[in-house]
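Progress report, Aim 2. The chain analyzed during this reporting quarter is listed below.
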Amino acid sequence: MKQLTLGKYPYTYARVSVMRSYLLDKEDYHKLLKMSLNEIISFLQSSQYKKAIDELGVNYSGIELMEMALNKNLVNTWNKLKNISPKEVDILIDAYLSRADLWNIKTILRGLHTNTPAELIAPMLLQTGKLTQHLDKLLQSESVEEFLRKLVIVGIQFESLSNSLETLKSKNSIVDLENFFDREYYNRMIKFSKTIPSEGKLFKQFLETEIETTNIMNVLRLKRAEVDKHKTQSYIIGKISTIVKKIIDTDNKEDITKILSQLGVSEKALEDFASNNSLTDVEIELGKNLLKKTRLLLHQHPLTVDVILGYMFAKEVEVKNLKMLLKSRQLNLDEEFIEQQIIA
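Predicted structure tokens for the chain:
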């Protein structure tokens, strides 16, 4: 793969800095936590999300409208970044946006597996990435197998999915399939990252940290399911890190808890893991740590393309936070619980 050449783009960085100023901060989230569902919707209607809400409001309403508007705003933001960036930076943005293809594939897969109607899956999809023009065709699949056969359009051969498909048939589980798609995505990104020069340092570090986080969570889930060590290693994405190897090798829950503590996981999340075997808060804490590291690198490299990647990730996190907040309010969940789920 050809080495990517990156320079300095003051115009683009200045535009991105302005866009970053519109991101929600901790104070905004604090206010949102005090609001009812209707008040949150009203807040979004008077924010940067207003245009998308107005455009979709003719055909949709309620939570469905909000989720679709959040997705549309996210995609529009990514497209705007491409429009204000030079061609060589577009390549980096496109590489990041391939995660939208991963999201869409896994969303459709989960929908088909749970017999969710296509009209309910569609609003959850992101209209960007290589799959965009094929989403309608993929949504028309009547079974998981038919869907998998259609993925040849993005270079995924059906034959390579045979083992994972066998697991689906024998255990009614899509875990192997999801792991396959995760590995496909990250292996492509690892290959791409080798073409990035030093100016794209954040992209490489972000990717490495995200892969390690994904591997840690996969290993913890497999341990909880009592999958043996040899089988667990087959789920690892990329090169196994020292931390991931330690977690795989130990059968002592106390030792795993100590490792997670060293990674910055809070005492509350660790207690929940130790007593209830719950990984929900652990995953949230690791996600928060990833965001913190990304923000730190942003401040360290303010005049590089890292600023663009950092903004894209922060914007994606904001949309996830807002979706979670809306859904939690709809279900009347406890404020303390909601606050713990927010990555800010």
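Residues 87-174 form one domain. The chain has three domains: 13-84+315-332, 87-174, 196-301. These observations will guide the mutagenesis work planned for the next reporting period.
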